[in-house]
């Protein structure tokens, strides 16, 4: 009578136990070793969460000035728009009407932003 | 075990050892240094880990970027007074057993910058140093020699009793006071438990 053929899951069980022992026995031995020989020595520095040489300072929730959005708008207008305009110009001849209209709407939105920023006086140099 | 019996057994191909020797053998061949350099000595430290000098032969090629995983701090370079508290803090955060190699003239005494107002005159004023290496900077061979010296020290450590090292002694400290950056100097200027100024004797 063959036990493996009778219960095919026996091997799985044996391997599971072996795997658990493989992990737990070294951990247990390390724990015993620590208890017998090397005492735990916690301290304020050792238990500190941050492990660089410097203590963290201040709050992680840094406040940004709300006026920063003006720079974001100007960045979109002068930088991102240029990136889109170049492929637009290259592919201009073969574009369908829908793509042309979509691009025009995009440009219009950014042009509105430019006019608005201009009126706010953001473009004036100090 | 008797030394004669032991050598007789080894002639017969039987290897005997003790728990203490096995423990020290394992530890001395897996010392992981902290990845941390302060000045030009660090360049030599880096060179000693590369293929030509190959610190990996001694089991120490794994430089850990976290003090939690490191056993050895190689103080490689000039320790400024601004930096000293951070060095001591990093040392405190290392897990026991931990060792320190003071590499180069600056780390052991301040070196050519000893007269400088902002240079610590040796890291051994705050943390216990196991091996000092002279040189400006020491060559990689010198660092490897220091490393082998440290390995010899580790191999001779006892597992229990009076001569046991700090990390096995429950009463010995594991953290050392971190100096503060004061108005004129570090406060305190030294840790008297670790370092005392050399006593000057005047003859006659």
Describe the protein in words.
The complex is a heterodimer of chains A (126) and B (204). Chain A is an all-alpha fold and 126 residues long. Chain A has helices at 3-6, 10-36, 68-90, 97-120. In chain A, helix 3 (68-90) packs antiparallel against helix 4. The mean pLDDT of chain A is 86. The longest helix of chain B has 16 residues, at 140-155. In chain B, helix 2 packs antiparallel against helix 6 and helix 3 (41-49) packs across helix 6. Chain B has 204 residues and is of the alpha/beta class. Chain B starts with a helix and ends in a 17-residue tail after the last strand. Chain B has a domain at 17-158: Rossmann fold (3-Layer(aba) Sandwich), CATH 3.40.50. In chain B, strands 1-2-3 form a 3-stranded parallel sheet.
Features:
heterodimer, A: mainly alpha, 4 helices, B: 204 residues, alpha/beta, three-stranded parallel sheet, two-stranded antiparallel sheet, 6 helices
C-alpha Rg of chain A (nearest Å): 34 Å
Percent range of helical residues of chain A:
55-70%
Question: How is the main sheet of chain B built?
Answer: 3 strands, parallel
| Coarse shape of chain A | elongated
């Amino acid at each position: 009578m063959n036990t493996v053929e009778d219960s095919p899951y026996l091997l799985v069980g044996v391997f599971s136990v072996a795997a658990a022992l493989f992990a737990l026995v070294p951990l247990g031995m390390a724990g015993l070793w620590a208890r017998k020989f090397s005492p735990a020595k916690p301290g304020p520095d050792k238990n500190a969460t941050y492990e660089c040489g410097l203590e963290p300072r201040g709050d992680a929730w840094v406040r940004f000035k709300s006026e920063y959005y003006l720079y974001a708008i100007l960045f979109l207008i002068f930088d991102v728009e240029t990136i889109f305009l170049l492929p637009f110009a290259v592919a201009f001849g073969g574009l369908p009407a829908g793509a042309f209209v979509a691009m025009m709407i995009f440009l219009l939105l950014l042009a509105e932003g430019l006019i608005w920023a201009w009126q706010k006086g953001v473009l004036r140099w100090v | 075990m008797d030394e004669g019996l032991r050598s007789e057994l080894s002639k017969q191909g039987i290897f005997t050892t003790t728990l203490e020797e096995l423990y020290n053998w394992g530890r001395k061949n897996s010392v992981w240094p902290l990845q941390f350099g302060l000045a030009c000595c660090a360049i030599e430290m880096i060179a000693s880990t590369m293929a030509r000098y190959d610190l990996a032969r001694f089991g120490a090629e794994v430089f850990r970027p976290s003090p939690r995983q490191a056993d050895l701090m190689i103080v490689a370079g000039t320790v400024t007074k601004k930096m000293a508290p951070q060095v001591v803090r990093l040392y405190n955060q290392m897990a026991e057993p931990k060792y320190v190699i003071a590499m180069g003239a600056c780390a052991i005494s301040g070196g050519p910058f000893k007269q400088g107002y902002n240079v610590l005159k040796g890291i051994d004023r705050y943390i216990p140093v196991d091996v000092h290496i002279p040189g400006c900077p020491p060559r990689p061979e010198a660092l490897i020699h220091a490393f082998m010296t440290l390995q010899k020290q580790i191999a001779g450590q006892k597992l229990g009793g009076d001569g046991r090292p700090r990390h096995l002694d429950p009463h010995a400290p594991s953290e050392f006071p971190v100096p503060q950056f004061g108005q004129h100097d570090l406060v305190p200027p030294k840790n008297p438990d670790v370092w005392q100024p050399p006593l000057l004797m005047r003859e006659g």
